[in-house]
């Protein structure tokens, strides 16, 4: 048995679609007795939106960049949260920043400050968003799985600067990952690689049988787990330097898995 671990946004889900060849390859993978793991910055709700729209199945989920790990029945294998006080302190630092959309998620509930709300953008990741004024945001009494910042102007330089600031102030408490002009803030010691290791420890699969594919910096921790790491020809050179194989589409990676079985 081999395992494909794939990112979603920018990897499987590109230009608002999952291409037919990729979907067919995932079905073939499963038909041949192999497993498919989704590893994403999305929450369960965000994955559900895509899995229902494009009709694909998975065996495990690494959600919120590793802060939640689930099996296909959505039973929790691992969960770690950002403490309420830390999360709200980070939000307070940036809630008045004009160039940012802000999104907070507990894993089951999604919140957006009313002055930081882009309905179209947020709808891609969750239904039933609760849009709150700042006073209500800071009265929330819950811990969070992930905080997301998005540069309105699509400025990579701006989000890199914010990433540096957050790591400088909160680096002992959270991890910060950049995906183009998005930032994902998750609990300390959470990554896609850590989440994947929780699954591998449970099912006892050797890493030589694991194949990982992604397109961004938050995918690098899972590239480190196996020599069968894949990314795309078009991505940042720093990402390509950390992946041993470069392809155009996910189905090319699946073809390699099937042929090596």
Automatic annotation (TrEMBL):
This is Cof subfamily of IIB subfamily of haloacid dehalogenase superfamily/HAD-superfamily hydrolase, subfamily IIB. GO terms for cellular component: cytosol. Pfam families: Hydrolase_3. It comes from the Bacteria. It comes from Clostridium cavendishii DSM 21758. GO terms for molecular function: magnesium ion binding; phosphatase activity. The lineage of its organism: Bacteria, Bacillati, Bacillota, Clostridia, Eubacteriales. InterPro entries: HAD-like_sf, HAD-SF_hydro_IIB, HAD_sf.
């Amino acid at each position: 048995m081999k395992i494909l671990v794939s990112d979603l946004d920018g990897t499987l889900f590109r230009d608002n679609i999952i291409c037919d060849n990729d979907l067919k390859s995932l079905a073939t993978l499963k038909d041949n007795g192999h497993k498919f793991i989704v590893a994403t910055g999305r929450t369960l709700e965000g994955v559900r939106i895509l899995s229902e729209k494009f009709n694909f199945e998975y065996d495990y989920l690494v959600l919120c960049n590793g802060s939640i790990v689930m099996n296909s029945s959505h039973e929790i294998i691992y969960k770690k949260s950002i403490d309420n006080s830390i999360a709200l302190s980070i939000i307070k630092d940036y809630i008045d920043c004009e160039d940012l959309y802000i999104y907070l998620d507990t894993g089951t509930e999604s919140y957006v400050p009313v002055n930081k709300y882009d309905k179209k953008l947020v709808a891609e990741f969750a239904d039933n968003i609760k849009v709150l004024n700042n006073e209500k945001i800071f009265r929330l009494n819950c811990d969070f799985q992930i905080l997301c910042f998005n540069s309105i102007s699509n400025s990579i330089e701006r989000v890199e600067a914010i990433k540096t600031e957050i790591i400088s102030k909160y680096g002992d408490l959270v991890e910060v990952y950049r995906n183009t002009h998005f930032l994902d803030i998750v609990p300390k010691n959470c990554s896609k690689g850590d989440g994947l290791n929780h699954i591998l420890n449970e099912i006892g699969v050797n890493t030589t049988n694991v194949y990982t594919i992604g397109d961004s910096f938050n995918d690098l921790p899972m590239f480190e787990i196996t020599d069968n790491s894949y990314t795309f020809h078009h991505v940042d050179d720093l990402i390509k330097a950390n992946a041993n194989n470069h392809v155009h589409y996910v189905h090319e990676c699946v073809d390699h898995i099937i042929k090596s079985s």
